[in-house]
Specification:
CATH class: Mainly Beta
Keywords: Metal-binding, Zinc
CATH superfamily: Peptide methionine sulfoxide reductase
Organism: Dorcoceras hygrometricum
InterPro entries: Yippee, Yippee/Mis18/Cereblon, Yippee_fam
Protein name: Protein yippee-like
Structural class: mainly beta
CATH architecture: Beta Complex
Number of helices: 0
Pfam families: Yippee-Mis18
Mean pLDDT: 88
């Protein structure tokens, strides 16, 4: 295995809650109205320092999507997913975009999102822009 080189971002950023590798800038958030199993999730236009898993079709609250899980390259933690394709034409805007699960990242002020036991989502991807 080779050496890992991380990209460092400047500004208000989100980072891995385990190793603090930089993942995305607040200015690259498209929507904060998404949800996942652990509560809030944010749709990003671009992220850094992630690797991708295998493509798979997932039925989400907004329909069938082809996605890949994304992992922090610093520690290997699952931090969200990337939309590869959407079946519904109204969901095409998500293609090529990334979801970071708020529960799995630190916010711009270094804060952790606290998981609420009251959150019962039937699937992921509840938000709309």
């Amino acid at each position: 295995m080779g050496r890992v080189f991380l990209i460092y971002l400047e500004g208000n950023l989100y980072s891995c809650k385990h190793c603090e590798a930089h993942l995305g800038l607040a200015k690259d958030i498209i929507s904060k109205s998404f949800h996942c199993r652990h509560g809030k999730a944010y749709l990003f236009d671009k992220v850094v320092n992630v690797s991708v898993g295998e493509k798979e079709d997932r039925l989400m609250m907004t329909g069938m999507h082809t996605v890949v899980d994304i992992f922090c390259v610093g520690c290997g933690s699952l931090v969200g997913w990337k939309y590869e394709a959407a079946q519904d034409k109204n969901q095409k805007y998500k293609e090529g975009k990334f979801i970071l699960e708020r529960f799995k990242v630190l916010g711009p002020d270094g804060s952790e999102y606290v998981f609420s036991e009251d959150v019962h989502m039937a699937g992921s991807d509840a938000g709309d822009v």
